[in-house]
Structures are given as structure tokens and as C-alpha cells.
Design a protein that fits this description.
alpha/beta; Quinone Oxidoreductase, Chain A, domain 1; Rossmann fold; 6-stranded parallel beta sheet
Length: about 325
């Protein structure tokens, strides 16, 4: 089968002779039609942080996990062959023609005018799971660090959930227009402004009730600690690059910052059905983020675009079509 092979940092190759997965007991086989790229794959692609010690090459298809497709083989009556599905690979090897998944990580999809847009239901589910860990955001002052696809989903949902203020910040300037489009009341250019000072100015010195870190870089994580008010909350969602990273604990503990962590992965599959429904019923505008849509043969370009957003305006939830 076809698959993407990570050969070395910054180097991937399309192969056609990867072994087709064999479903184990309780698994079904899916034939993929579309695969979304995710920021969690970029550190592996670039060989950064803990991925610098990866034994190259990685297994074929690693680390794809945003898969739309058709059930090819299944022991389940509710998911017969031919069913269009959103599926989470049982093994994180979803950059491939075929994956195996379990029914709890697989949801049947309705017939819609734009089926490719449903690929965003996977990241939407991870954000919904993170928000389920937090108290109600009605009337809260919020900031979202990072306005890549996941940060924009947070921004959009916070706006819909009644936050009084949603500040989006990112060093990539074109993303700030998308931040406002997704419902941000304010947008901060992190490449040109001191973001802590900017948030203080936007909130009349009160900073925020809730800060969401959706980047995972050491710089973003450290900055995020200074944005919640005394007793406010910080949700760390971005995937860290290293197992051990510095953090301003003295400030955070002295300011009684309530810290919540949530990195979803396969634990977000319980939110797949509601995420699909929200996209289908346009309860959120996140389907607009599924752009650009690129053929499988342009996967190498797609990864470069995702890893270097400043050079590729409009590169958000890049999706490959097989």
C-alpha cells in the first residue's frame, strides 16, 4: 500500500510497498480517503526536541491520526463495509492507504455536501475534551496562545460559549485575521509586541481568567504562566517538545494559578460523535479551517507548508486526498 515514510529530519518519502495492516481481534480495517496534517507531527518531521533521538526511518505512516475513509473489513453490524467513517488509527500510522481501528475510535459519517470538511472533527474532538476539564467560560476574559488550527478551534468555541473577551495571539500575522474570523475580540501580533503587556492593556491591567496554551514551545509555555490573574486558570494543551522543560513555577504558585493539562490523542474519541454533529450542523465555523486540500502526490510540499506557516499564507488544516 501507499504510505509516507519519515526518513530523516525534514525528509519524507512517498512509498508504494508498505505492508497493509491486518486487523486484530476487535479491529476493523479502513481504506483512507483523506488525511489531515497535525502540528503534533511537525516536531517529528523537523527532528526537534525528543524526536531528535528518533531511530530513523520511522514506521511507514507514522504519525498520521486524522483519517476519513471507508470501512473495508469489519466484524461489526453497526459499521459494515462501505460505511464512510472518521477513524482513529489503532496504531499511529495513519499516513497510509489503510488503517486499523476499533469501534470506540470510529464513527459513521452522514452524507454531507462537503465530506472532506469532516476531517476537522478529529481536532475539534480533542478541543472539546480539553474544555470539558474546565469550568464554564461564560463572561470570562480568555487568551489563546497560538492561532494555528487547534488554537483557532479554541478561539471559535470560546466565542460561541459566551466568553466576554477572547484574545488570540500568534507570531504569524496572517493568522490573526483568521483569529478575528473565528470570533476573537482582540488579536495580538506576538512577533512585534510584548504579549504580556499587550494582554494587560487589553484587559485594563486585569489580565485574564483563563489562558490556553496551544503551541507547545518552551517560549509559549513560559509566557502563558504570566497571563492568568491571581487564582486564574491555565490550560496547557500544546504538545511539549521535550520531557523536561523549564517553567516559571515561582510566579505560577505565588499567583495561585490553577493549571490543567490535556493532550488528548486517542482519549478524545468519545467526543467524535458530538464533534461530527457540530460540524454538520454548523454549530461552529471550524470547517472553514480545512484548507488547503492537496493531492497525495504533493505530501512533501504539504508538510513543508505546515511546518513553515509564515511562508505559506492560508495553510491551516492541510488535508491530503488519497
Amino acid at each position: 500500500m501507499r504510505a509516507i515514510l519519515f526518513e530523516a529530519p525534514g525528509k519524507i518519502r512517498l512509498i508504494i510497498d508498505a505492508p497493509k495492516p491486518v486487523p486484530q481481534d476487535g479491529e476493523l480495517l479502513g481504506r483512507c480517503t483523506h488525511i489531515g496534517l497535525c502540528g503534533s507531527s511537525m516536531d517529528l518531521y523537523l527532528g526537534q526536541g525528543r524526536w531528535a533521538k528518533t531511530n530513523w526511518p520511522a514506521i511507514p505512516g507514522w504519525m498520521g491520526h486524522e483519517n476519513l475513509g471507508i470501512v473495508a473489513e469489519s466484524p461489526y453490524e453497526e459499521l459494515p463495509p462501505g460505511t464512510p467513517v472518521l477513524a482513529h488509527p489503532e496504531v499511529y500510522a495513519g499516513f497510509a492507504d489503510f488503517i486499523t481501528s476499533r469501534p470506540e475510535g470510529t464513527v459513521a459519517l452522514p452524507q454531507v455536501a462537503d465530506p472532506i470538511s469532516l476531517v476537522v472533527a478529529q481536532p475539534l474532538a480533542t478541543v472539546l475534551r480539553a474544555l470539558s476539564y474546565l469550568p464554564p467560560v461564560m463572561n470570562l476574559r480568555c487568551v489563546v496562545l497560538g492561532q494555528g488550527p487547534l488554537g483557532l478551534i479554541f478561539t471559535n468555541l470560546l466565542a460561541h460559549m459566551g466568553a466576554a473577551q477572547v484574545i488570540g495571539m500568534d507570531p504569524v500575522r496572517w493568522r490573526l485575521d483568521w483569529s478575528r474570523r473565528m470570533g476573537a475580540t482582540d488579536a495580538v501580533d506576538a512577533s512585534a509586541e510584548n504579549v504580556v503587556d499587550a494582554v494587560k492593556e487589553l484587559t485594563s491591567g486585569r489580565v485574564v481568567d483563563l489562558a490556553i496554551e496551544a503551541v507547545g514551545s518552551p517560549e509559549s509555555l513560559n509566557t502563558s504562566a504570566y497571563l492568568p490573574r491571581c487564582g486564574g486558570r491555565l490550560c496547557v494543551f500544546g504538545m511539549p517538545r521535550d520531557d523536561l522543560e523549564g517553567f516559571p513555577w515561582f510566579h505560577a504558585t505565588g499567583n495561585d494559578v490553577q493549571i490543567t493539562t490535556c493532550r488528548s490523542g486517542d482519549r478524545a474519541t468519545a467526543f467524535f460523535p458530538v464533534a461530527v454533529r457540530m460540524v454538520v450542523e454548523r454549530q461552529t465555523e471550524v470547517a472553514d479551517l480545512v484548507t488547503p486540500r492537496m493531492p497525495w502526490e504533493r505530501a512533501l510540499q504539504a508538510f513543508d507548508m505546515y511546518a513553515n506557516p509564515a511562508r505559506h499564507e492560508g495553510a491551516l488544516r492541510i488535508t491530503l486526498e488519497l
